[in-house]
Amino acid sequence: DLNAIVTGSTNPNVTWAVVGSGNGYISGGETYTAYLPPTSKTGTMQVTCASAADPGAKTTVNITVVAASVKVAVAPATVSVPVGGTLVFQAGVTGNANINVDWSVVEAGGGAIDATGLYTAPSTPGTYQVLATSKADTTKTAVATVTVVAETAAAVNVKPAYASLPTNGKLTLRSSVNGVANGNLTWTVQEVAGGSVTSVGNQAVYTAPATPGTYHVVATSSADATRSTTSTILVRDAAQANVFMQPSELTLLKGRSYPFMASVLNGAGNTGVSWNALLSGGTFSNGLLTAGSTAGVYQVQATSLADSQASALGSLNVISQPYLETFDFGRSTANTHVGASAVTLLDGTVLVMGGSSILNDSFDPQANAGQGSLTAVGNLAVNRYLHTATLLPNGKVLIAGGYTMVSPYGAVATVEIYDPVTGSCTAGTSMPSSRAYHTATLLRDGRVLLVGGTDSSYNDLASALLYNPTDGTFTPTTGSLTAKRAYHTATLLMDGRVLIAGGTGNYSSLSTTEIFDPATGTFSAGPAMASVRSGHTATMLGDGRIVFAFGGKATVEVMDVATATSTLVGSAQGAITYHSATLMSDGRVALIGGQAGNAMAKWVHVFDPTLNALSLLPNGLVFGRGKHVSCLLPDGRVLVVGGAGDNGNLVFAELMK
Fold it and tell me: Which run of H or of E encompasses 285?
């Protein structure tokens, strides 16, 4: 990434250009990318930077481009498949523009694999090897080990296990079958007049009846009708109080903690809930869950204080051993996502939206024998990046603002709503003005708070909006921010207020914070961070403290809002920006990748709240990346998608497990 400062003019805008043909290109207005072989050049390339106010005022940057070597990796690297079962292998080639591979099975009788990577297991159990050979350099290969096992009893899973819906509402369900080659399912509703269900493959859409009640959707294995599983759905009248819980499914290491949040719709101003972990699955303290000491699957419940009949159920899987700290990867679709957004939907899939394009992808962690897969879904109407995406209580996604890479360029005010039932986006009511680099936070009453950002003229904003999902409208908050800010963070506190931290205001990084109170619609000064930060991340721990990481700094700090203190807890090898942060199933925070100097880092730093210390994982990312997204999956793995790499934008996703 290239950055410029203009002096002697009030116009900070510049134009970057690569000198000479075939010497690379500029994307996103400020990112230089060298071409890959076979069209690449090595040596010193020149990039000019000219002032928009005075094109004659310019400077030149020299960039050294070195030759890249071909590398091949394959995912999954190890896997088990039942006899006759199928699995899609995915290969990644770096160091060359030709990313194609030839697939083969090393052993005779070890199964078959086609040109797309679709492997069919043989009828004989055993251990076999699948080979991926680069077409750009046939001396470069990667091997996966496949253990073919005899069929066992079918195991059926369905997501979500629990859900709440208004009468006549719709919900997408997703299921998988493990242990047998036949993964087909039949879907039914257990109760007479309990609604209806339609399905295509492993996905179903449930339509709630007009009568409130508790209903059950059953997914049954076609291979073994005695094997099934159920999704329990609480249907409430749309005018009554309804509770929405996040996360609705969580895997958590025993004894570790994680914050749960709930929104109450139609609660007559009372957004409070009582929390309960059923059957000794753990204990709650104001929404902060600490897992119990016995491994197993439990229920968690949030009940409205306004209406005890309104509640939401979630699934808690307590595990006794932490996951391994290693990454593998699978190639996505041809879509790249730089500056994208990601949201985990109610059915456990992850929607990855935009990022310098109109393209959306959906990651299904249950697909492909549990290895997961990325598939394209309905596109955005507007090319956008550095926008926000917020999961609404009705299961839809609010997509707002961002920058666009098509004329007239700059920040946009447009809004789209993604509906997982139809798999498509529709236009929503636009915001009153354009904004990008802003934040969006779901409040406890179901509204969404959108804060700050930059406008179409790249001016930082002190304004904030409230989105009402009931009528789809935006209204300004009663009060404005105490300072202009963009590239900041917003964190929903356990008491329902929102902490706005750091960012950039008038081209200077900030250490100040402010707190939004939904009861008054106003902002007030909050506790200061220990360091100025912009483009940092903010992650709430299971004890309610907040981890602020990097943002052009090497340091990490932890803030306790209750005591108004923030303490530095460690440093990375150097300043990092454009990283991502995810609270993991063991209660630690993974700080993933980012740009360090002129390179995209493979580093994964971890903050451990029990030690109050920062450490570096010995096994980092497969591909260094920045401007990517990451999130915790319901099964405890961490998904990393998109971003820019050292040799261009990445089409590979990685899984930490």
Answer: strand 282-285
Burial environment of residue 204 by CB neighbours within 10 A (0 to 12, 13 to 18, 19 or more): buried
Q: From CA 474, how far away is CA 487, in angstroms rounded?
A: 21
Q: By the 8 A CB rule, do 645 and 625 touch?
A: yes
CA distances to 233, 272, 283, 286, 562 from 259, in Å? 23, 15, 12, 9, 16
The tokens describing 92, both together, are 């990644």
- Nearest alpha carbon to residue 637 among 617, 621, 655, 649: 655
The helix/strand/coil state of 279 is helix
Kindly report the backbone phi and psi dihedral angles of residue 383, in degrees, each rounded to the nearest multiple of 5, phi listed first.
-60, 125
Measured from the Cβ of residue 107, the count of other Cβ atoms closer than 10 Å reads 13
- Please choose, from the candidates 372, 420, 339, the residue with its C-alpha nearest in 3D space to the C-alpha of residue 642: 339
Note the pTM of the prediction, 2 decimals. 0.85
Contact residues for 225 (Cβ-Cβ < 8 A; gap 6+): none
* 86 contacts 146 by C-beta, under 8 angstroms: no
Please state, in angstroms and rounded to a whole number, the distance separating the CA atoms of residues 266 and 268.
6
Question: Is the C-alpha dihedral spanning 618, 622, 627, 632 positive or negative?
Answer: negative
Measured CA distances, 363 to 16, 231, 623 (Å) = 35, 21, 19
Measured from the Cβ of residue 117, the count of other Cβ atoms closer than 10 Å reads 20
pLDDT in tens, 547-595: 999 999 999 999 999 999 999 999 998 899 999 999 999 999 999 999 9
Report how far residue 486's alpha carbon sits from residue 169's, in angstroms, rounded to the nearest whole number.
37
What span, in angstroms and rounded, lies between the C-alpha atoms of 261 and 492? 9
Q: How far apart, in whole angstroms, are the C-alpha atoms of residue 277 and residue 388? A: 32
- Both tokens assigned to 169: 């509402």
CA distances from 56 to 6, 51, 59, 383 (A): 13, 7, 10, 32
Q: Beta 170-178 vs 196-200: how paired, if at all?
A: unpaired
| Residues 6+ positions from 64 with CB-CB distance below 8 Å | 43, 44, 45
Q: How far apart (Å, rounded) are the C-alpha atoms in residues 88 and 104?
A: 13
Question: Distance between CA 609 and CA 542 in Å, rounded?
Answer: 9
Residue 460 is given by DSSP the state B
Collapsed DSSP state (helix, strand, coil) of residue 437: coil
DSSP state of 378: P
65-69, 163-167, 248-252, 417-421: least confidently modelled range: 65-69
SS3 content of the chain, % helix, strand, coil (to 5): 0, 50, 50
CA distance 532 to 555: 10
Here the tokens at position 264 are 């109450």
In which residue are the tokens 């043909």 written?
21
Beta bridge partners of 187: 219
| DSSP secondary structure string for all residues of 471-519 | TTEEEE-SS--SS--BS-EEEE-TTS-EEEE--EETTEEB--EEEEETT
Neighbours of 467 (CB within 10 A): 25
What tokens appear for 306 in the block?
Answer: 């306004």
Average pLDDT score over residue span 178-204: 89
pLDDT per residue as tens digits for the range 458-468: 999 999 999 99
Mean of pLDDT over the chain:
91
Q: What SS3 string covers 77-133?
A: CEEEEECCCEEECEEEEECCCCCCEEEEECCCCCCEECCCCEEECCCCCEEEEEEEE
